[in-house]
């Protein structure tokens, strides 16, 4: 086995939680509200159905092909050539997504805080730190994710609690002003983020308590659902109809915090949440990329790929997106389609193919037994 490290089901759950929400909590409320309007809080409920279904796909495929990732069992199911082609599609996509995530991180940090810092410094710094973690293996990724996820979760909860005095619940009424369809259509954006839970397939082989992982997988999707609903409600209650006009509603909401004229302007809290979440998310995609490449090339170790890929994804972060406006447009249109295709649709088709093959094998065995008797 290329990777010999081990991790717990809880660590995988923490990784998935931060991976999905790292970018979702800042961008999804705005993107969803442009379609769903005042019903943006309901869209994550419909979107979570994709998350639950994706967890089911990942777990069932792992049961059929234990110890393998989608890069490997594609070749067993579809043959060497077609399996290699699909595996290569995933690897190219991981490079692209790593570049997108790095650029999202840099656009937010440079645009909101470090305005005089060159973007290449911000991106290069995070890439280097993530490369060190990925080179350390799943145990380093798991333990560091536990630490950074704490920095991700608690500041977010603190900020939401401090915003309670600024909530205007009347902003959500009337509910279903234009029917239920806007909230369902609005789910097309967050459902792409929910589909990212399929990345658990790259960690399942190293989990020590795999039976518990099944429960943790579904619980993680549910907790992500609750977090997105609360985040969307917070943006709606604070900004109302202005929410679609803001790129980062949560960051803008942090500036509203004012407790006794002492504790105010908590934008730095949002930056801490963003940095911690981005670290975990890039680690997840980065590790899937290098491990998948090693499996695709039948290498004995993936560590020699970490630094070269670090340079490649850094370059892609500049090549893939010219500016913030293009990034927001892609996140609203094409990227949700690609994420859902790669992490939900293709795995579902692979699982369907496996079930059909098993049924045909059972039917052939039954026929052969009857012929013998």
TrEMBL record:
Listed Pfam families: Spore_permease (PF03845)
Major subcellular site: membrane
Parts of the chain that traverse the membrane: 7-28, 40-59, 80-102, 108-134, 146-164, 184-204, 216-239, 268-290, 302-320, 335-356
Gene3D superfamilies given in the database record: Amino acid/polyamine transporter I
CC terms in the record's Gene Ontology section: membrane
Protein origin, superkingdom: Bacteria
Keywords: Germination, Membrane, Transmembrane, Transmembrane helix, Transport
Membrane association type: Multi-pass membrane protein
GO biological process: spore germination
Protein localization: Membrane
NCBIfam families according to UniProt: 2A0309
Homology family: Belongs to the amino acid-polyamine-organocation (APC) superfamily. Spore germination protein (SGP) (TC 2.A.3.9) family.
Designated name of the protein: Germination protein
